[in-house]
Amino acid sequence: MTGFIVELIARGGYWGIFLLMALENIVPPIPSEVIMGLGGMAVARGQMQLGWLIAAGTAGTVAGNYFWYWIGRRFGYQGLKPFVDRWGRWLTVEWEDVEHITRFFHDRGGWVVFVFRFMPTFRTMVSLPAGMSAMPRWRFLLWTAAGSAIWNAVLAAAGLFLDRRFAELDRYVGPAAIALMVGITLFYIYRVVTWKPRARR
């Protein structure tokens, strides 16, 4: 099963990796751990090159994060509130969440963009306050790319290591990856269906 999934990723090529990683940071259907991990397995099987895999994954990550940075910069702090109020259900984000992350961002400075690249929950959300605070574009892109490159390299190397050292995991990794994707999708649907603003709870 793992071989089938890896082959699908390999068939999409580096553009497929770029697109999946970009989407993962806009509306996360598949976690980056799965995408880059299986990409690393494709490298072990000679279907991809590690350097290009990391470059494509990092470019996709930066593109996806820049989307939210642009939203934050385009609408500003108060201008973004109607957007969050209207689309919060689909983003499963409330304005209070945006306020929390914005305060945290302002209190600790731009290094947060780099550090948060290693945190699954906040790696995308931090792009909003970066844009809302008008963080220089070059600095946002630089720190996002730096953190993303390191994280993606770790994930790809893990996939490469596992494919070379533990061929017997093929029976488990594939079903586990599918179960993880299905679980995340179901959890997202559950959040959308049951989501209510705090004021209505």
UniProtKB/TrEMBL annotation:
Alphabetical list of PANTHER family matching this protein: ALKALINE PHOSPHATASE LIKE PROTEIN (PTHR42709), UNDECAPRENYL PHOSPHATE TRANSPORTER A (PTHR42709:SF6)
Superkingdom, natural source: Bacteria
Main location: membrane
Membrane topology: Multi-pass membrane protein
Keyword vocabulary terms for this entry: Cell membrane, Membrane, Transmembrane, Transmembrane helix
Name of protein: DedA family protein
Taxonomic source organism: Sphingomonas aurea
Protein's cellular compartments: Cell membrane
Spans traversing the lipid bilayer: 12-30, 50-71, 140-161, 173-193
UniProt xrefs under Pfam families: VTT_dom
Residues in VTT domain copies: 30-159
